[in-house]
Amino acid sequence: QQQVKQSPQSLIVQKGGISIINCAYENTAFDYFPWYQQFPGKGPALLIAIRPDVSEKKEGRFTISFNKSAKQFSLHIMDSQPGDSATYFCAASRTGNQFYFGTGTSLTVIP
Amino acid sequence: NAGVTQTPKFRVLKTGQSMTLLCAQDMNHEYMYWYRQDPGMGLRLIHYSVGEGTTAKGEVPDGYNVSRLKKQNFLLGLESAAPSQTSVYFCASSYLGYMNTEAFFGQGTRLTVV
């Protein structure tokens, strides 16, 4: 059973556009929701993370929106750039326990 | 500071052969994990460890064994490789703490079983 469901599987965005990736979870005990970015041939690396006590977190062009009641969270990439082309994974965990990852979204930003 | 280092980076095995993947971290993290990454499946947890001498099963543990004899090392073993184990394997480690929960990943091991 997939603990974290992610969509879309792939996304193509024009340079300067907004990329939006969505995730949903079931376990209300999760208290940490990170997004990881992975470039080809590399391991995933933490991009941005949020805890359920806030509804939004912004770091530069990257924003996480969190809806606790709907058990959903999303990543917004503003002013998308070709260098943002990568695979993005959402994840969830309960502090002190293992991470559960979504199935990934392959983002392509067209110049 | 090397972070998380995986050895080897590439390997081709014949069906039935055995091998061990080594993961080493120099961040003094308590938690270590082994994931496999397959197209359309994301990152699936194979086994993990919450400290030296402890291991636990993840989502897809069948066909794999692990050991954590030292805090900095986490070994993943395949006793009798099968083509279904062709995948990219990632090791990760994290600190046990509410304010610092980031998982650091290695570069991956691409394993092909023929």
Low-confidence stretches of chain B: none
Mean pLDDT across residues of chain A: 94
Total beta strand runs of chain B: 11
Sheet with the most strands, sense and barrel status of chain B = 7 strands, mixed
Radius of gyration of chain B: 13 Å
> What shape does the CA trace of chain B take?
globular
Structural class of chain B: mainly beta
Low-pLDDT runs of 5+ residues of chain A are none
Order of helices and strands of chain A: EEEEEEEEEEE
Which keywords apply here?
heterodimer, A: 111 residues, mainly beta, 6-stranded mixed β-sheet, 5-stranded antiparallel β-sheet, 55% strand, B: 114 residues, 7-stranded mixed β-sheet, 4-stranded antiparallel β-sheet, globular
Polypeptide structure, described:
The complex is a heterodimer of chains A (111) and B (114). With 111 residues, chain A is mainly β. Chain A contains no helices and 11 strands. In chain A, the strands form 2 sheets. In chain A, strands 2, 4, 5, 9, 10 and 11 form a 6-stranded mixed beta sheet that branches. In chain A, strands 1-3-8-7-6 form a 5-stranded antiparallel beta sheet, with no helix packed on it. Chain B is globular and about 40 Å long. Chain B is mainly beta and 114 residues long. Helix content of chain B is 0%, strand content 52%. In chain B, strands 2, 4, 5, 6, 9, 10 and 11 form a 7-stranded mixed beta sheet that branches. The chains are: A mainly beta (111), B mainly beta (114). Chain A binds chain B through residues 6, 9, 32, 34, 36, 41-46, 49, 89, 93, 95-96, 98-104, and chain B through 4, 31, 33, 35, 40-45, 48, 58, 90, 92, 94, 96-98, 101-108.
